[in-house]
Write a structure and sequence with these properties.
The chain has two domains: 2-66, Gyrase A, domain 2 (2-Layer Sandwich), CATH 3.30.1360.40; 79-201, Cyclophilin-like (Cyclophilin), CATH 2.40.100. The protein is 21% helix and 32% strand. The chain has four helices and 13 strands. It has helices spanning 18-31, 56-65, 91-98, 102-111; strands spanning 2-5, 10-14, 36-41, 45-50, 79-84, 114-119, 126-129, 144-147, 151-155, 158-161, 166-168, 171-175, 196-201. The protein has a four-stranded antiparallel beta sheet, with helices on one face. Strands 5-13-6-7 form a four-stranded mixed beta sheet. The protein is elongated, with a radius of gyration of 18 Å. It holds the Pfam family CT_C_D. Residues 1-191 form the Carboxyltransferase domain. This is Allophanate hydrolase subunit 1. Keywords: ATP-binding, Hydrolase, Nucleotide-binding.
């Protein structure tokens, strides 16, 4: 891990892996040092923003210096279940590349418990880790110009749900009717880093 200054009241922690990022975020979230305004995890980083003069950044540095990031604290996270109709345009492609049936794709995808590692790309879009190895496949060679909202996709080590219409190159395996982002809601985004997510087949 390596810390870098990020303005006057924030610091960016560079992590060696996504696993380390998730563990660092969980450790700080669990301890909740006073004075922390915001924690923003990325694929290999964690941004920590403090209240000016609180000393929270120093507290977080000390906390993580002594933390066992191989065994981060558990518990306290929400678990969200999303009902999915597995009818995606790329379902057969995913099955073929995985060397399994489309039914097996559904079984594998619904059998795992995922963690929201970080959010980005679009408001409400969560990058979910925990995808079974056979489903870890590359993005499409030619991205679509329009992906419908609620589309469930996979790409590399991640799975996720498109919260709104947008271009996208993830392989689509299904769709959900659950609203992932509503600017009128509090909070607007359904998923937040650290949340656990399960997918359930809606038939």
């Amino acid at each position: 891990m390596r810390w870098r200054a990020y303005g006057e009241h924030a610091a960016l922690l560079d992590c060696v892996s996504l696993t380390e990022t998730i563990a660092a975020h969980a450790t700080v979230s669990s301890a909740r040092p006073p004075g922390i305004i915001e924690l923003v995890p990325g694929a290999r980083s964690l941004l920590v923003v403090e209240t000016p003069g609180s000393g929270a950044l120093a507290a977080v540095r000390d906390l993580l210096a002594d933390a066992d990031l191989e065994h981060p604290p558990g518990g306290g996270s929400r678990e969200i279940t999303l009902d999915v109709t597995y009818d995606g345009e790329d379902l057969e492609l995913v099955a073929r590349d995985a060397g399994v049936s489309t039914e097996d794709v559904v079984r594998l995808h619904t059998g795992a418990v995922y963690t929201v590692a970080f959010t980005g790309f679009a408001p409400g879009f969560g990058y979910l880790t925990g995808l079974p190895e056979p489903l870890r496949q590359p993005r499409l060679s030619s991205p679509r110009t329009r992906v419908p909202p609620g589309s469930v996709g996979i790409a590399g080590e991640f799975t996720g749900v498109y919260p709104r219409v947008s271009p996208g190159g993830w392989r689509l395996i299904g769709h959900t009717r659950t609203v992932l982002f509503d600017p009128r809601a509090d909070p607007p985004a359904l998923l937040a880093p650290g949340d656990r997510v399960r997918f359930r087949s809606a038939g």
